[in-house]
Design goal:
Helix content is about 40%, strand content about 25%. It is of the alpha/beta class. It binds S-adenosylmethionine. S-adenosylmethionine (SAM) binds next to α1 and α2.
Length: about 250
């Protein structure tokens, strides 16, 4: 599993884009005072932090299958009920939450429709289920330049573009299949400034997620080749990476 890594490594690799994504995503799910919400696939807690800021820890529950991430989320967010579980088997009674949110998770679910169905099951009638996935298929994700460089060197690579929810309209279809109603699709975007090429590249070497696992499987020479290809494709530092995520919400 590509998320059996320390929370600090995740922060440096994906957290830098996930943290700024969270406020817009919480807005989309209409997370405001008085709600009880579930953060599905919480990781070390990028979205959890935003939910706690809005609602307080006792109104937030979170699940993730990764042991180190669950430990980090518990330690970072005392008072939040953090459990080790997958979206496909949520350890909650029916209709106990006002909203269930999955930020950057649907594409990693083993059975995405089942995961969304479970999110709907634990959400009260007319409560909100929401999900976001980077635009890996359309080339607007935060890792898109990296994967483009990989494909130029290794045309047969399996990148993240084929994953569930990664293409335009995919989330809406999955929501429909999961039985959600009044589905609305939109996009969210973040802009992150990178002060140097090294600051951008080094987190790719930490083994986090499919991109990190791919780098870890290369020998030193191939890694250097990929690093140099990325450097040549990026603008001179400092540069800004603007990334787009597909988002969908529906009613349970
Ligand atoms: C890209 S991270 C997103 C983490 C966090 N939501 C954020 O925005 O930073 C993907 C997360 O999905 C989790 N995950 C993988 N498969 C899952 C599943 N079947 N159900 C729930 N979470 C899953 C991983 O452990 C990881 O923490």
């Amino acid at each position: 599993m590509s998320f059996a890594v320390g929370a600090d490594l995740y922060d440096r690799f994906m957290g830098r884009y996930a943290v700024p994504l969270a406020p817009g995503f919480a807005d989309l799910a209409a997370v405001d005072a008085g709600r009880r919400v579930l953060d599905v696939g919480c990781g070390p807690g990028a979205l959890t932090a935003e939910l706690v800021r809005r609602l307080g820890p006792s109104a937030v529950s979170a699940v993730d299958p990764s042991e180190p991430f669950v430990a980090a989320a518990r330690q970072r967010h005392p008072g939040v009920d953090v459990q080790r579980a997958t979206a496909e088997e949520l350890p909650f009674e029916d209709r106990v939450f006002d909203a269930a949110l999955a930020q950057l998770v649907v594409h990693f679910m083993t059975r995405p429709v089942e995961g969304l169905r479970e999110m709907a099951r634990v959400t009260r009638k007319d409560g909100v289920v929401a999900a976001s996935v980077w635009d890996h298929a359309g080339g607007q994700g935060p890792l898109s330049l990296y994967w483009q460089a990989v494909r130029e060197l290794d045309p047969d690579v399996e990148d993240e573009s084929q994953l569930a929810g990664a293409g335009e309209g995919d989330l809406g279809l999955l929501f429909r299949e999961a039985g959600l109603r009044e589905i609305q699709e939109s996009t969210l975007s973040v802009s992150v400034e990178h002060p140097s090429f090294e600051e951008w590249w080094e987190p790719y070497t930490l083994g986090v997620g499919p991109a990190g696992v791919y780098v870890a499987g290369l020998n030193a020479e191939m890694q250097a080749q990929l690093r140099d290809r990325c450097r040549a494709m990026l603008p001179p530092p400092p540069f800004t990476v603007t990334a787009v995520a597909w988002a969908a919400r529906g009613l349970a």
